Amino acid sequence: MSNDAVASRSTADPTSVDEPPSLSPCNGAPAPAAGQSWFPKGSALVKATDWNDWRWQMRHRIRSVDRLAEMFPELGISEGLRAAAARFPLAITPYYASLIDQCSTMDPVFSMSVPNGREIWNPPFLRDDPLEEDRDMPVPGLIHRYPDRALVIATTACAMYCRHCTRKRVTSSRESRISETRLRRSVAYLRSNPGIKDVIISGGDPLTLPTDALEEIVKAIRSVPSVEIIRIGTRTPVTLPMRITDELVAMLQKYHPLWVNTHFNHPVELTADAARACGRLVDAGIPTGNQAVLLKGVNDDIEVMERLLRGLIRIRVRPYYLFQCDLVPGVEHFRTPLSKGIEIMEALRGRMSGLGIPDFVLDVPHGGGKVPLLPQYVVSASPTHTVLRNFEGMLVSYPEPYAEDMGTSPLRPFAGPARVCDLLSGQSSVIRPHSTERHNRRRLSAPQQRTRPERGRQVGMITGDITSTRDRNA
Ligand SMILES: *Cc1c(COP(=O)(O)O)cnc(C)c1O
Ligand code: SF4
Fold first, then answer.
1. Global confidence as pTM
2. Does domain 134-372 match CATH 1.10.540.10?
C-alpha cells in the first residue's frame, strides 16, 4: 500500500524484510546500550522470523512496569502509573509498542496501551459491569441480550490490554480460556434456543488462542443447526497482525458464513502489516468490520476520524460502529461528551463515502443494548409532508403517499420567502442555503440549464398544489 493511510511506521514486512525490524521507542530517546533490551533502536537482536511470529510477539509482550521502564527509558514511572498497572492488566506486544512515536499521552498508541495514573480516579457512577452483562448470562460466559444474538466469552486474554477496555472485569492477568464444560453448556444453550442466529465469539481476544483451540470453539458453535452466522471480535489485526496467518484463515474459512469485527481507533494503526492481515481475512471471504471507540485525545477529532475511516475502507474493512465509552472504571479520562460523537457524525455525513461512515452507538447502562445516536435530520412533519434537512443545511419537503383523507393545509398561500411551514403544507418544496460548494458548482457547470435563479426557490415559488411544487430541478 502506498497511500498515506498506511503509516510509514510499519515495521515488519515478511515479504521484504531481511533485516531485523528496528524499533525506535519514543522519538529522540537515546538508544539503549546493545543487549540492554530485545528491540532497541537498530538492534540486531530480533530476527525477522521471530518478529513476524505471533507466538514470539505474545511471549515477548511488555507485561510489567519494570519492563516498560526498560523499554522506554525516558518514560517517567510515576506512582500513578504503577497503581494503574496494578489495578488493570498490562500487556503490549512488541509490534504495537513499535508504533509508539513519543512517550506522551499526545501519542495515540501510547495512550491506548501504557497505563496512566488517571485510570485510578473514578467517579462513583462508574460500575465494573454497567451493561449488566453478568445478569444476562444464562450460562457462565454466554451473554444473551438480544433475541437473535448471543456472545460467548472465549478467553480472558488479549494480545494488548487496551487502557480503554470496557470489559475489564473479564480481561485479566490470569489469562484463561473457556473450559470444555463451559463450552458444552454454551452449545447446549444455543441448541435449546434456536432463536439465536448469530453468535459472537469474543473475550478477551479469541485470536490469542492457538488455532486448534479456537477451532474447537468455532466448530462446536457451527454444529448448532440454528446458528446462521458466527462473528469473531478481535483486536489482533491491530495489535498483533502477524496472528492472521494463512493457517488461521484456512481454518476459519471452513466455518462460513463467518464475519470478523476488529477495533482500529487511529490511522497510525493502519500499517502495512495491519492492511495485510485484514486483506487476508477479506480474501478468504470473511467480511471484516471495525468497531472503534471514541476516545478523548486519540480520535475525538474530525480530521483524525476521517483519516481512520478512509484508511479502513481502503483496506476493505467496513466501519461498523463508533462506540461511546462505557461507564466503567479506568476510562473516565477517555470519555467524551455524547455531543462529540454527534458532532463527528454531523461532519462525516455528506463529507465522505457512506461506506466509511459507522453508526455512533451508546451501549446503554442496565443492559438496554446499543442505541444509535445521530444528528436530527427530520426537521418537521405534517400529515402530507415531512421536512428534512441535508448536511448543507438545505431544507427539503418530502410528500407522503397521496391519500384522499390526508387533508389540506390550513395555511393560505404566502407571498414572502418560503418558510418551513410552507414546506410542510406543500406550498414550497425546498429552502436552499445561499451558497454551498455544490450550488456554486452547479452554477458554474451548467448555467444555461438553469430555469430560474438559484435563489428563486428561496423567495417562494408558491402554488397551492402538492405535486406541481415538487422541485424537479433539485
Ligand atoms: C454488541 C452486542 C451484540 C451484537 O450487537 P450488534 O448490534 O448486532 O452488533 C450482541 N450481544 C451483546 C451482549 C453485545 O454487547
Ligand atoms: S482487545 Fe478488546 S477485550 Fe481486549 S483489552 Fe482491548 S478492548 Fe478489551
1. 0.86
2. no
What grid cell was written down for 8? 510509514
Q: Is 96 exposed, middle or buried (0-12, 13-18, 19+ CB in 10 A)?
A: buried
- Write down the residue that cell numbers 387533508 correspond to: 407
pLDDT digits (tens, 9 = 90+) for 35-53: 333 454 344 468 888 899 9
Clarify whether 149 is annotated catalytic: yes
Element spanning 57, H or E: helix 54-59
Question: What is the whole-number distance in angstroms between the Cα of residue 204 and the centre of ligand 2?
Answer: 6
Report domain extents, the chain: 3-120, 134-372, 378-470
Neighbours of 241 (CB within 10 A): 28
Which residues does 215 contact at the CB level (< 8 Å), separation at least 6? 251
Q: What is the pLDDT of residues 68-123, one digit of tens each?
A: 998 888 888 999 999 999 999 999 999 999 999 999 999 999 999 999 999 999 99
Structural contact between residues 130 and 328, judged by C-beta atoms closer than 8 angstroms: yes
Is 325 among the residues known to form the active site? Answer: no
Q: How far is the CA of 388 from the centre of ligand 2 (A)?
A: 39
Q: Catalytic: 145?
A: yes
Q: What angle do CA 103, 106, 110 make, to 5 degrees?
A: 50
Ligand 2 pocket: which residues have CB below 6 Å?
158, 161-162, 165, 167, 171, 203-205, 235
Q: How far apart are the first and last CA of the chain?
A: 40
